[in-house]
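Let us practice reading a record.
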Amino acid sequence: YKFVSQEKGVKVVLEANPNYWGGPVPLQQVVIRPIAEMTAAVSALLAGEVQLIASRDSDSVEPLRSNAQFDFKTANMPLSNPWIFNMAEKPFDDKRVRQALNWAVDRDTYTKTILKGLAQSAKSVFGPAMAAFNPSLPGYTYDPDKAKFYLKKSGVSSITAPLSASDAAFNGAVDAALLFQANAKAAGVDFPLKKEPADGFWDNVWLKAPFCESYWGGRPCATMMMTVAMTSSAAWNETGWKVPAFDKLLADAKKEIDHDKRKAMIFELQRMTHDDGGAVVPAFKSWVDAAAQKVKNYKPYSLYDLCNTRVAEMVWIDES
């Protein structure tokens, strides 16, 4: 497509490029409208003002699920909203405290209530939508007895560091934090909750608070996620995970050309983060797109929404 015009914050207009190397495109014109509030985006779809929307907000798109006028699309993907600990600060420098917190969250209830079932409960930091996922990891389930066991072993009676929560991290984040707090308290793990303002959350709280919520979009493979978030020198190493053996194995895996050897190395890297990492991942959210019935050839992908961002290349409008 070729650029036609732009109204900042309102819309971008594109038109078909007759010289596109991939051949003729299905739409003669594409209009992209940024709509910040998902309720407004859903209203625009219901009113026929737009033909397709993408959403990461399970609540707002709920009215569309049972509406026969619209095609409701979902796809499993590696988008997650973890609770993270700074492993350099007490009590999160103790592996047993981190394990206690992993056993202290009811992931199934989280998935059903917070994400309205539009997600997969997570057993570890990495999910099945990601390439080279290690399915042999034992994972974590809600086990209050194990949570109490590991907390007792650590010698920590309660956690005074508050969980910093804000809907800036994701829609429903504060409710999710309240659920985690209640789950953990029932498992003998008590911690306070601190509601943070959405404005400035990523600048003032993330990477600074010892215990807070986070958000991660999908990555096509585990090594990419590990590189940006888990290597000792990574700018976004949000948990302070600094393990030289991990760094070396990751570097070796990225240059290994033998598929089976590389896969085994990536499996081991996942095991290391599963056993000793500084994050609790309750679920992997699904992409949720909704389109008018006249939008044809829509194919959901696991990595990104809107046909893996290729929607203008793939769909057409049936006006018949």
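A brief commentary: The CA atoms of residues 16 and 259 lie 40 Å apart.
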